[in-house]
Specification:
Elements (H helix, E strand, L loop, with lengths): L22 H14 L1 H19 L3 H33 L3 H16 L11 H24 L1 H4 L5 H28 L14 H4 L1 H19 L10 H17 L5 H32 L3 H29 L1 H21 L3 H12 L2 H15 L5 H13 L4 H13 L2 H19 L15
Helix pairs in contact: 1-7, 1-9, 2-3, 2-5, 2-7, 2-9, 3-5, 3-10, 3-16, 4-5, 4-9, 5-16, 7-9, 7-12, 7-15, 11-15, 11-16, 11-17, 11-18, 12-13, 12-14, 12-15, 13-14, 13-15, 13-18, 17-18
């Protein structure tokens, strides 16, 4: 008896099947990862977040808390809205208009960070703008990820997911390098930027906005979209949430998807916590200065991108489930080594090796979701995919903080991440190794 969660048993996709995309459309789709990865790298992780906490907020502690709340609330908004928006998009059929809307909102809200002067009066403006930009960035990824299975043939989903993710890491590193060398660290910033008013740092906001807008264009120009279903938007806004509620009530019919999302919720929480606190651990345990922490972060992104590209073909050959298990297992082993070493050089070596398995964990998760999701519910399922990455985002940092305080040790706190990897792997083992099948050819 056929698994009801398989694409073949889920019913027809909305509208006629557009077939595999021409290579130009797939390349343009992958370049979008290059385009939008500048936002998390430059704004959320490295440059603007540090500027806000150190130069805009009343003090570093207050600024860190304010920035954290803004990110948390925007993530909560994504978790609540993404499945509903995905269900609505499945009703109307097309995804590019939604992606265009959220890309434009991300670009506009990011550019709105430029006026934020080093003055506490700008705190509310900065927090609202960055929260909107992050909401738009994360929401756009729902529709972007859902396009993959309609563009790539089933036997090549893994490599295109991996190549796209690798391009994303490369784009983030490239934009961050330009931001640091041309603006932030330049002795004589271009365009007569006033260092006293931190214009050389604030300039990274319009840089990221322009970068995202420019490199997003190929997708909107060359990548085909799924056809319209003919359902009016007003009707879809009513039918979409009903379909989502029906899916959640009949979750047993989509058992493979549910098991995978539960497993991903756990191991991605561990991975996100590792990234969030890796710099804190490097600074506190190994005495790294801020400049060295940034260098380590850049190097880690490079190895993550390399890992994504290297594992891309392997994903298609052995399946994304095995790639996830291998990658998370290696993260656990190398993570243990990172916690045990006391030499900074060994920390660098193990940390960069660990990065090789970060990218494949993420890209293979995307390709597995593309294989598992029923065709007529694909965007809705990627909305739930987004939910699984946000719903328990508080858990990893909370457990880490509790363990760190209980044992008065950063190493012990970071060690709690290994538990998330172990539980995620155990749950992942029960997910069927299910892959989408190529469309049957007519005789």
């Amino acid at each position: 008896m056929e698994d009801p969660s398989s694409p073949a048993a889920s019913g027809p996709a909305p509208g006629p099947d557009p077939g595999p995309s021409p290579r130009r459309g797939l390349v343009a789709w992958a370049v979008f990862d290059w385009a939008n990865s500048a936002f998390p790298a430059v704004i959320v992780t490295f440059v603007f977040a540090a500027y806000f906490t150190q130069g805009v907020a009343a003090d570093t502690v207050t600024g860190t808390a304010q920035w954290g709340w803004a990110m948390s609330l925007s993530a909560l908004a994504v978790a609540l809205s993404a499945p509903v928006l995905g269900a609505v998009a499945d009703q109307t059929g097309r995804r590019k208009p939604w992606l265009a809307l959220f890309t434009a909102l991300c670009v506009g809200a990011t550019a709105a960070l430029w006026p934020v002067e080093p003055d506490t009066a700008w705190v509310p403006w900065a927090l609202v703008a960055v929260a909107l930009a992050n909401l738009a960035f994360e929401s756009g990824m729902v529709f972007y990820n859902a396009m993959l299975a309609d563009l790539a043939p089933p036997e090549r989903i893994g490599r295109w997911s991996g190549w796209g993710w690798g391009l994303g890491y490369a784009g983030g590193v490239a934009c961050l390098t330009i931001a640091l060398l041309v603006f932030v660290q330049a002795d004589h910033p271009p365009f007569g930027l006033d260092r006293e008013q931190a214009e050389h740092v604030r300039a990274v906001a319009p840089l990221v906005a322009l970068w995202t807008a420019l490199f997003s264009l190929p997708l909107f120009l060359f990548t085909p979209d799924t056809p319209r279903t003919g359902t009016p938007l007003s009707q879809a806004l009513v039918a979409g949430p009903r379909t989502l509620w029906k899916t959640l009530r009949n979750v047993r019919r989509h058992g493979a998807v549910a098991r995978f999302l539960l497993a991903r919720m756990i191991y991605i929480d561990g991975l996100n916590t590792l990234f969030a606190f890796g710099g804190v651990y490097a600074a506190g345990t190994f005495g790294m200065e801020l400049a060295e922490v940034i260098q380590f972060g850049l190097a880690l992104n490079v190895t993550a991108g390399i890992g994504s590209a290297l594992f891309a073909v392997l994903d298609d050959r052995i399946g994304p489930k095995r790639v996830i298990l291998i990658s998370v297992g290696c993260l656990a082993v190398l993570g243990t080594g990172v916690l045990l070493v006391h030499d900074k050089a060994l920390f660098w070596a193990l940390g960069l090796a660990l990065g090789l398995f970060v990218g494949p964990t993420q890209s293979a998760s995307r390709s597995l979701m593309a294989h598992l999701a029923p065709a007529d519910l694909r965007t809705e399922m990627f909305g739930l995919f987004a939910l699984s990455g946000k719903a328990t985002a508080w858990m990893g940092p909370a457990v880490l903080a509790w363990v760190t305080e209980a044992f008065a040790s950063q190493r012990a706190g970071m060690g709690s991440i290994l538990v998330f990897f172990a539980i995620g792997m155990a749950l992942m083992a029960g997910v069927p190794d299910q892959r989408a099948r190529p469309p049957e050819r007519a005789d």
